[in-house]
Batch of 4 targets.
Target 1
Amino acid sequence: MPRPDPLLPQGNSSPYRVNNVTYTVLASPAQYRERGVASWYGMKFDGRATANGEIFDVYGATAAHRSLPIPCYVRVTNLQNQRAVVLRVNDRGPFHPGRLIDLSYGAAVQLGFAQQGTAEVLVESIDLAGVDDRRGRTAEGYRFLQLGAYALPDMARALALEVEARWGYPTQVSPVDTGGQRLYRVRVGPFSDAAALEAAFVQLSNSGYGVAQRLP
């Protein structure tokens, strides 16, 4: 159910760069309406953090968009069969030329294009009253970046070692229980100040990591 979630700094850095391309996040999702190609992403990303730090569920009603503020809600209609779903945008992408939006596997199944991989769709924002825009809040008080949360501890440790070897950032892997499931959270830090944290955020994000959540 769409709800007026506040717009936080997590996942809304603007402008941002991926693969040497610069993108700008819209000031508001209001009256957004665009046709384009939808694709879907699935099992490879299941359990990883999305751009705003939420845990991706391949069967959830979520989507990734390059420029819509996070989080917001959209209605996606498959123009071939007129099936429609309402989705929560909580991630960035797709960064593939010619694609407009990435959906969860579950959403692609609902729209009837999971087997073919892509579909021509209409994306329309669902405008909600009372959304609090907190994107101007500074990063003071945050000391860690979260890269993801994994069901397999070996996967979490491999990611932590990769980041340490490539950039020299300190990392931590810690278990956390979410709804009865144990996940292993990969955190980068601690950082001494907000400037160092933001510099690491930009560097890791531009390198393709799913950095989103800042933690105290």
Target 2
Amino acid sequence: MNKVVRNIIYIFIVLIILGLVLYPRLKPEEEGPQIAIEEQRTLLPVEAKIIKPKRIENIIKVTGAIIANESVGLRSEISGKIDRIYFQEGQRVKKNDLLLSINDDEIVAQVERLKYTQKLNEDIEYRQRQLLEKEAISREEYEIALTTLNTTQSDIKETEARLAKHKIYAPFDGIIGLRQISEGSYISPSDLVANLYNINPIKIDFSIPGKYSAMVNKGDSIKFAIEASDEKFTGIVYAVEPQIDPQTRTLEIRAICRNDHEILIPGQFVNIDYSLSVLPDALMVPSEAIIPEMNSHKIYTYKNGVVNQQTVDIGLRTDSDVQVTTGINPGDTVIITGILQVRVGMPVNLTQLY
């Protein structure tokens, strides 16, 4: 090999070595972003939410039942044959309306006889009083006549009271239910005549867990719905049982609601939303972000590109969120996906921020 060829080979080798050394330095701006993109693709993708205070209501959902404002089973106080029925089934009646009468011929005759006896005893008492004033009789004889008159008057009152029991009157305004007897039938105190209901307003009975008892107040508002209507109704708590049921550990509550259109009927099942309190600045975290531990809870947060861990205390729950009372601050970024894969200090790829 001559000298010229050897020199060309040496120059070529030197150029190759220089190219290998200088090439990476000549394109740093082109390869740097590509490397960063490749590294980012290898990071765990997660979604997170920035925590902001918001106003929420502490609502518990319970079930209950509608009951009538007033209801009574109409029954007779005495036995006897029904003379006449004065009402129709389903009829609206007013307080003190006559509903039914029982044969009272015998009692009426007794009252008439006693009134005749009263008239006779009044005349005897008058004459005895005149004689007593003239000292023609003793006071004892006059007092016997007076006692006889008073006894007769008492007998009349007693018999009239028995006579009044032969008629049944409406104890309050309401609607008569289905009739269980007929005219001419024999009735006794154990026989039901019909039921009488007052359904405006209507009452709602329900129970809540005893742990909420301190948060219940008369005048609280409830929202409820029934299966027969899409309408939402509002009731007001007006009575609370003064003790917690020792068997169920629940507190019984009664609310009242207007029923002008009589959509609500006693016996209906209701779903109730009871707002116990309002939290103006609650920190709510999606429930999937909360990790339960033995005696506490924790969440993962995103800060400076890496994962951090926080121990938190929780409060009330909604359908999708949980209140965090301690452990986070407004503005913190809480990781809500990839919870099982993340670790403290791990860099992650934040793909979505809510």
Target 3
Amino acid sequence: MLRPTWDPFTDVIALRDQINRLFDESVSRAPGREGMARRGWAPAVDIFEDNDTITLKMDLPGVQQSDIQVELEGETLTIRGERTLSDQDSPNCLRAERVSGPFLRTFTLATQVQADRVTAQYRDGVLVVTIPKAEETKPRRIQISATA
């Protein structure tokens, strides 16, 4: 697969994610909107790519492993779950800034992958999803032959 050295869509997607995160934070902190913070949130994600794999790392502090669901359908990776912070409902809670509630993140994979070899690991509040690329999408070195 030929790839340009600069991909404007990567920058657009990153900008969109930052705007969404800023919007989510400002809405959840607006006066009289304390309940909105519990309706949903968007965990931060880092995505890495090399010749063999796509790796996604998602921060999910305070989320139980049993409350996380990872699905790959076609070219769409979906991660959903819920963080429950029951201590925020306590009458002793003076201030609650940690966001709780359900989350849903979807990602469109731009390359073919080996869906049957996708793995997910959860440790210390970080979900790591490793997605092996299909063999036909991996770069190959092409031998140049001499002409007479």
Target 4
Amino acid sequence: MNTKIMKRARILLIVGVILIILAPLILTRGLGIIDFSNTGQIGDTIGGITAPIASLVGSILVFFALEAQIEANQIIQEQMKVQKDEESQKKQLQNLLDQFKMLREDVNDFSYITFKSDSTDEEKNSVSYLTRTGRDAFRQVIVGMKQYKTKQHLDLYKLNHKLGEVKSILLAMDSLLKQTDSATIELTDKVFLRNLISYQFNSKISHAFDGMETYKASLQKPCEECGKVHIGIPDDLFDIITRIEKQLPESNE
């Protein structure tokens, strides 16, 4: 209960008790102003005098009690809201961390198979398969599009399905950064998540696009037969890279 309300209630209670005690003594003696000394039985007189005072004091005390109860309910509601907000923040943070875990697994597990020709002698050649993962795989896919040659008149993503995987990973990273920025979590948690994402991006992906702007698909010569571009790196990958870089801590300094 509020200390101010308690203080007021105590003062009123003390005043009321004093009035109840003094009223019969004062009003049952002839003081020349009002004389209740000859009014009915003394018990009825005292009761009739003190009852209104006690009733008034009791009513006011009830009012104070209700006021204190309302204030207590407001405090409880505020505490419940704070608790609910804290639970919501924990759920949001856990959800973001789960998404980051999945993203990190996708980045680390990303693989690309290349062919390696080994000349054992002048007459025999053997071809072996080399599986690259993570950082090396991203670089191999992007760099490999510089001189990608094919007779199929297809979209770049259909020609090289690995480009689609790269795009999906980049979009997931971009989305996670946006969710982190809009989430109602502590600032320190946001910074922590951005740093985690920044490490994955800078150490595993961004290097694959370094110096590759001149190989954008829009800058390559279209196919003479269908008029479409079948070489180069899709422009939208560079657009996503730029969006991600703008959201990372280093870009905000």
